[in-house]
Amino acid sequence: MADRPIEVLALAPKLHELFDGHLPIKANGDADQNERDFLSRALAAYALHKLGGASIQDAAAGVVDGGGDGGIDGIYFSPVTNTLWLVQSKYIHSGTGEPDLGDVTKFKTGLENMLEGRFDAFAENAKITALRPQLEAALKNASTQARAVLCYSGLSFVSEDRKHLFESLRAKLALDQTDDYFAFQAVNLTTLNDWVSGGDVGPGIETVELEIVRPGYVTTPYETIYGLIPLEKLKALYDEHGAKLVRANIRGFKGSTEVNEDIQKTLSDEAQLFHYLNNGLTAYCDRLELYPVDRTNAERKRVTAKGFAIINGAQTLGSIAKCVQVPEGDAAPKGFAFIKIVSLEKCVDDRAFADRISRTANFQNTVLLKDFAAAYPLHAQMASTLRPHGIGYHYRIDEDTPDADETNFTIDEALTACACLANAADCDLVTRVAANRPSLLSLDVAFPDDVLCPSRHQRVFPQGLSARSAWRAVQAQRIVLKGMGDSAKAANGATKSFYTNARWIVLSAIYVRLKPQEGEALALTADEQAAISAAVSDYAEKLLAQAVAKGFAAYEAVLGGLQVLTTQRDFQSVFKTQGDCQNLFGALKAAIFQPQNQGQAAPAVAPPQPNETDIT
Predict the structure, then answer these.
(1) Which of 55, 220, 396, 545 is the most buried (most CB within 10 A)?
(2) Contacts of 499 (CB under 8 A, 6+ apart)
(3) What range defines the domain where residue 166 resides?
(4) Distance (Å, rounded) from C-alpha 307 to C-alpha 320?
(5) Quick check: is 606 in a domain?
């Protein structure tokens, strides 16, 4: 496996992008040491920027790393929140592990000295000395809160012995159990990757202001407003924010479909009746604020929605954006759409409830399993991991989804590649790729005793699957499918059927033997591509030989002495039958591993299964 996780590869370029020119570098220092120093200091500034809300300039100015810093690398006081942010940063080139216990202990001691006003401990640090008046004023303010951050570019979670240091400091500084004056948090490479990729930005729009006509208003258990909104206002809203409005929806706008064409025809011909003929929009928000003067207005209510996201109605909104024109002046609305907005403010688990709203609301329309599978969190995580490297993983398919190419792939490609990658000896997954691919999209529990992967979709996309491995697997899959496809085009009869239907078994074998999914680089090298291409024809020949040896096919002589491949059952049936696939896959693995095991008996394989296994 690759030594360095993909997440760390994008971090250094991002730190340079943000902080080049803002952090000093020694003019005559060692280049490698200068780079290490820059990245560690930039990491401290990045934490101050993302967590404390400091500007890039203020975050860079808050870097105090140097002699006499007491293990503190970054300081920023936010006057908006009255919060003092104190950061220790460690740039770990390997992307693994966590900061040394000695360094973390030094940080804890430095925090203790600073928060207890012992500034003489930092006398040798000119930057902290210059900040002393501001720090003393902040610490004298009874409303100030202190936040310690351990920020490091390793995937490991912070260990309990490190956590204990800060818990003991919290207990020492707290007046009682409810005192939240001091708190500690660790930021590892996973969180840093969210920052780099934009994965920390929640779905939807930060703030929207809407006017609801003929409103209904519910306050318990969850604050909800519903009613009509002019089509022109929705068009203007889309023009301003675009697809971000429906980023939380399980589907994006599909473009030209039969359903959308009907919606657009209604908008064009009968806009005044639209709210009668369309299901409308469902949205949620983090907080819903009603204009006080509108509380008694039964005709109209103006609201401000914080964290606003449309989670059902992407096709309706996209159609409105295409068909409706925003009139000049105060022209009367031509039509309305129904809208319901649910506030998540009082929800105990607001994200879970939001997902539930999305699922149940979308069940009212035709939704593919693929749309629900797209809500599986690993897909968003993979997309955000690859995004900084210029690779687009498109797990939510809409009209703007680009064609698959050297920098883009879709959930369709990932599904088949990762199913073959996760294929086990029983060949359940690889058979389903051929026979019942939608079953691999299902998140329904199929394995109740498997806590980690209770559904087939989770077996195809386990939590341990890296975005890099998935993308490399897809690249290998493309080579295999092209090679098998070219062979199928050049053949006919049973041979053509073999090359058409054996591709998934060949792909699975290539993953097992050549392991193209492993490696640090995102793109397969030319040598790797050539090896896979050569293996396609080699493994296919070996697999066909095994199929003949086991009675799935036979060569018969015809006029002219030619040998023609014949079968009693078409290869399409063979490769859709789990028992047959299991038999042939085991034989193929024995054949392709034979060169390095010469002199050893080939593993025993089961005889052909006479009955087909029904894949449901």
Answers:
(1) 396
(2) 484, 485, 487, 488, 491, 540
(3) 6-197
(4) 22
(5) no
Non-local (6+) Cβ contacts of 471 within 8 A are: 386, 391, 393, 409, 522
Quote the DSSP letter at residue 405: B
- Those residues whose C-beta lies under 8 Å from the C-beta of residue 43, and which sit 6 or more positions away, are 15, 89, 90, 91, 151, 152, 153, 192
Q: Look at the block and give the residue holding tokens 């064409």.
A: 261
**What is the mean predicted confidence (pLDDT) over 383-402?**
85
**pLDDT digits over 254-300, tens only?**
455 666 777 888 888 888 888 888 888 888 888 888 888 888 888 99
Cα 386 to Cα 389: distance, rounded to the nearest angstrom: 5
User: Model confidence at 138, in pLDDT bands (50, 70, 90)?
Assistant: very high
Q: Tell me the average pLDDT across 554-576.
A: 88
Q: Confidence class of residue 604 from pLDDT cuts 50, 70 and 90?
A: very low
**DSSP string computed for 185-196:** EEE-HHHHHHHH
User: Is residue 219 domain-shared with residue 120, that is, in the same domain?
Assistant: no
Cβ-proximal residues to 443 (8 Å cutoff; 6+ apart), any chain: 372, 373, 376, 455, 457, 458
Instruction: Out of 95-99, 312-316, 432-436, pick the least confident.
Output: 312-316
**Residues 149 and 224 reside in one and the same domain:** no
Q: Is residue 603 part of a domain?
A: no
Q: Which of 129, 75, 139, 65 is nearest to 103 (CA)?
A: 65
Check: pTM over 0.85? Answer yes or no.
Answer: no
C-alpha dihedral over 248, 253, 258, 259, to 10 degrees?
40
Per-residue tokens: 528: 């790797």
Residue in the block written with tokens 């260990």: 159
Report the distance separating Cα 23 and Cα 41, nearest Å.
8
The pair of three-digit structure tokens given for residue 239, joined into one six-digit string: 């023009």
Q: Tell me the per-residue pLDDT of 416-455, one tens digit each, with 9 for 90 and over.
A: 999 999 999 899 999 999 999 989 988 888 888 888 889 9
- 42 is a domain residue: yes
Q: What single-letter DSSP state applies at residue 538?
A: H
Is 96 strand, coil or helix? coil
